User: Which sequence fits this backbone?
């Protein structure tokens, strides 16, 4: 320890020793020890970074972009892709879909007031925007059709048709504005043709009035012979014998209520009436327009034939008994409605008339034999055919009966013959 009394020389020696140990070191023998190596100024190389964990690596990558299909169409439109419904177009006019594979897809877009659109679009790997070229439907109108005859078929531009129902109006929508051709048909009525103007946004009422054909449907019976009567039948049907008749036309069915009504309306002749059955004024019972008219007298039937002849310019009359029988035996299925009602013939009734064996176009006896029936004793006219439920017409073709010409019955009607020009 250096104190105040320590000699100066000693102090210097101690300081020198201390200084020398800082500059260089000596070992115990006084030799200089090696100097420590100097530290490099270069920075040590960084150690390689440890690999990141899988979770940190995934988090570091950007998320993949999902491809979207944006369909642009009118709001509310329904969308189908590849046959499957995919939703409705929103209020902003678009619908966004995901999950579609790249490539071609079938698209259907339908909306009220627009023409349906069908087509193909290509979905890319990136998002795709597709604007459906859907077009607005043109403004259309409609027709309100009514017909006076149920079952009337009404054709529009010969492209489509509707069939009238009793008392109902039929509406046909979606018609383009402009003229439309109408054609109305029904068997037994004159065909009606006309043009109606369809207006956009409007309903045009059309009333179809069909008029019955005055000329009934006819069956041609050619000239020739047939065997009249039946040897196994009732006494008034014997003997059977050949008869030759010229060509004539006979109505294939009885005169109908519908046709007879035209006659009643035109002439003022009383409408058919009887116990528990009858017309309401000049109108036949509903739904019976195509049924045979009944409750008409022989005189009514003759008056009808005269009227029909005057209206058509052709010669109509009641059939003779021979004409009726030949048609029933030879007409087959074409002789419609026979057997529903008895039918007036032009001949007077004589139960023994066949004994005369008239062979050439017989017209019947000059007068009838008096018949006692219904409190009467009077002459009668021939009726043929039989009424409801009496069996096959051909089997009864020779059957004869009679009734008083001024009386009517619920099961007696008539058909007509039209004479053929020679």
Assistant:
């Amino acid at each position: 320890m250096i104190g105040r009394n320590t000699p100066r020389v000693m102090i210097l020696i101690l300081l020198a020793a201390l200084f020398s140990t800082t500059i260089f070191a000596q070992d115990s023998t006084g030799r200089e020890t090696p100097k420590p190596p100097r530290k490099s100024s270069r920075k040590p190389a960084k150690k390689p970074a440890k690999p990141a964990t899988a979770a940190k690596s995934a988090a570091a990558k950007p998320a993949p972009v999902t491809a979207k299909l944006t369909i642009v169409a009118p709001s509310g439109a329904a969308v189908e892709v590849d046959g499957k419904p995919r939703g409705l177009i929103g209020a902003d006019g678009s619908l966004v879909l995901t999950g579609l594979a790249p490539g071609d897809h079938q698209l259907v877009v339908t909306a009220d007031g627009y023409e349906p659109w069908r087509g193909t679009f290509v979905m890319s790997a990136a998002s795709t925007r597709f604007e459906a070229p859907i077009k607005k439907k043109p403004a259309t109108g409609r027709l309100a059709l009514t017909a006076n005859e149920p079952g009337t078929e009404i054709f529009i531009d010969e492209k489509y048709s509707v069939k009238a129902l009793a008392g109902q109006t039929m509406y046909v929508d979606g018609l383009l504005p402009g003229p439309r051709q109408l054609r109305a048909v029904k068997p037994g009525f004159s065909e009606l043709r006309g043009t109606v103007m369809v207006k956009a946004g409007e309903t045009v009422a059309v009333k179809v009035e069909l008029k019955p054909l005055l000329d009934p449907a006819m069956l041609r019976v050619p000239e020739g012979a047939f065997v009249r009567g039946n040897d196994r039948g009732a006494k008034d049907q014997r003997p059977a014998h050949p008869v030759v008749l010229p060509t004539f036309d006979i109505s294939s069915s009885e005169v109908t209520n519908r046709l007879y009504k035209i006659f009643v309306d035109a002439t003022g002749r009383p409408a058919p009436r009887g116990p528990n059955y009858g017309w309401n004024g000049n109108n036949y019972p509903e739904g019976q327009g195509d049924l045979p008219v009944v409750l008409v007298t022989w005189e009514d039937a003759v008056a009808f034939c005269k009227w029909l002849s005057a209206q058509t310019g052709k010669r109509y009359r009641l059939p003779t008994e021979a004409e009726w029988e030949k048609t029933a035996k030879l007409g087959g299925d074409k002789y419609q409605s026979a057997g529903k009602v008895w039918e007036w013939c032009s001949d007077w009734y004589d139960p023994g008339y066949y004994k005369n064996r008239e062979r050439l176009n017989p017209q019947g006896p000059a007068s009838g034999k008096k018949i006692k029936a219904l409190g009467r004793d009077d002459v009668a006219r021939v009726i043929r055919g039989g009424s409801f439920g009496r069996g096959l017409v051909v089997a009864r073709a020779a059957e004869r009966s009679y009734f008083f010409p001024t009386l009517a019955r619920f099961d007696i009607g008539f058909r007509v013959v039209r004479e053929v020009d020679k």
Q: What stands out?
A: The chain has three domains: 76-131, 141-208, 218-418. The CA atoms of residues 310 and 316 lie 9 Å apart. The mean pLDDT is 85.
